[in-house]
């Protein structure tokens, strides 16, 4: 069998040194990485500060513009009659109420964005600054520890080097001691080999040989002792080397697997938590702005829900009583003390009146049927119009879905309302229907006006003919009648408001 | 009894005319009111258009500023190493991820506010314009009807006037006819009164008297007839007057109570409904903007929730493998073919080794107890720090509650974070604790490093002494041992990543 080739001391040392060199290089690299990580953090935190400083400006400008906008229109309305109304009682026409709430909303948005800007500047940015400080400080402290740990590690490696060298030394010595011993043993054998002489022996020769044998034995013993001593030393050195080797590997393992991550954790100490809080402050601000905005919009939505033509009409008529309060009834004015104040039905006029009553009756019947038809048509038309004006075409969510994609915004919006080709046609159609409605409604009014007049006469005749042949000459009855009429007028005027309210929107 | 004083014709006419004059004035007033109402509407709708046009500008400017802001930082980051990483795999350090999402959010806000502006300009304002057109058109049509109705009403009033006059005329006539008749009757009585003569009657006298009696009777009859005729005419006139009076009052009542509100409803036709839709379009846009914004914030919140030191640490170490990958184990290098490669425990060294093993054992016991103490302290300190850095001090809702009142914003914000007098003290306190923690942690590291070294030696000795008196000279065993070590190293390198991940944050 071929004996394996052995590494020379130099090779071993060289290998060891290159291994250590590698490690040292890594240690330097690690320090660099820690520095770099912190640099990146500080840079990120700087960017965040710049970002929020700039955004604070933008929010503040936005807030100012909104404030200006609200102010401009508030000032405009403050002078108006409505506004006096508004100050006096909150009882406004429902569209005007919406308008004021719209302005209030802009104000609220203005205030909230100012608040947002303020929180960025005086809270969020502050936090990022402090996190940046902390990172730098922590890096410094962590690097002190890192430095310490690396020094210890190098110590350990040096120790390994020393014990390895010692092992080499003692091992070589024990090898040389061994070979010297072997050599001594050979010489001894040679001496013994020259043993029994056959012819002519001289006395002095005999003496000389004995003394040299003694010498060789002495030397052999000495070399034996030396060898054992060196052998033991080299065993101990090897043991020490093996133990140190174990310790070294364990230290290296510990450093790379545990200590390094601990070091990184030291740099991180509180970084993520503080960043979390800073960003949550931002989120809290944004979410609160949103909530406030939402509350405002809900208020407007309520006002929009309660846009009501009927109550607005009543408010409108109440605003101008001189124009809309019904006048007093026209009273019968007896002429020159004429004491009869009701229709007389005594002969010969009674026949004529009865005939007239019957004509009125049949005329009314026909008129009512005709007008009922017209009314039906106009009401149907009105319903059509109301369906047209209450079509739910105001949902614009799609624009915002689109706006999340990369598509341009414009294109999407147009879809929602304008580009609906129907829009123009819809309006034309609506106006046509409107036209027709007004025509029908006018017919209906004429009809109903005629009916109301004839009806009044018809009813009066019916009453009086019913009362039949009562004596014309009756002061008391006049008294009664007058008071009766007066009562009607008063109650009519009293009930006016109530009546208005009770009226349906369009008959 | 005293007879009541009768109104003269003139008085009655005067009263009637003033009453009609009043009504006519009201009719004019009503037309004015309708005009005024529409003017107010058109003005309101104009204000709404101006308002939204201006707000659209503000929103667009806001959007542009946000876009610029996002772009500025996006450009900055696009170059960085992180960003390459980002493009490659989405696997970013958690804070960098938050930073990118923050920029995305600004972009989204920018887009959404642009959309908002666009909807204002191309949808909402359009609607208000159309409502304004409609109002004007409807007013025109309604006024036509109003005019018609008012004319009819005036006709009715004129008719009343006429019949009243007729009544007056015929009534006066019948009165005068009556008085003439009475006069004739008186004369007749006078004739009959000159009756029976007592002395000397002449023939021609007798003839003369008879003929005059006849004349008087004839006249009386004529006047009787005239009276009855006029009486009947006046009765009919009064009846006509009473019937027309009834019709008039009914027409007036109808006009004021029904027709007027119908007219106002005609002006309102679709006004409230269209306004409602216009405002709902605005609301829909605002609400959608809000939803989009909210979604964006939620994404950021998730990223903030997943700010994680541990996974960041692993990512960091993986980013620099040359720096953090553990080196190969140091191997035993046999010197000059030394065939023993493990600790020799044969006499005479064994005694010494056993003694050393025992010393290591007891030393380790003490060290471990001491270090455990230090560890406890440092861990406790760490917990304190972690409590400090995770304090929930980021809720800023109060700022927004305040911002709704009239109070200035500044004052309120300061309360939330800065003006907390503790803030400076808190930080000082935190740094002290940090200081102490690092001290303790350093002690702990030193201790544990020593322990790991001694432990390694201890374990090796234990193993070898356990193996006891095995022959030193054993090639096979060496072979086994070496392969064993090699295996360890390989697996260790393989497991590295896993190990790192498994590590707790700070031991």
From TrEMBL, chains A, B:
Residue ranges of every copy of the F-BAR domain listed in the record: 18-312
Coiled-coil ranges from the UniProt annotation: 6-33
Signal peptide: none
Keyword Coiled coil: yes
Cited Pfam families: FCH
Entry keywords, A to Z: Coiled coil
Keyword Cytoplasm attributed: no
InterPro entries referenced in this protein's UniProt entry, alphabetically: AH/BAR_dom_sf, F_BAR_dom, FCH_dom, SLIT-ROBO_RhoGAP
Record protein name field: SLIT-ROBO Rho GTPase-activating protein 1 isoform X3
Species annotation: Stegastes partitus
Organism ancestry: Eukaryota, Metazoa, Chordata, Craniata, Vertebrata
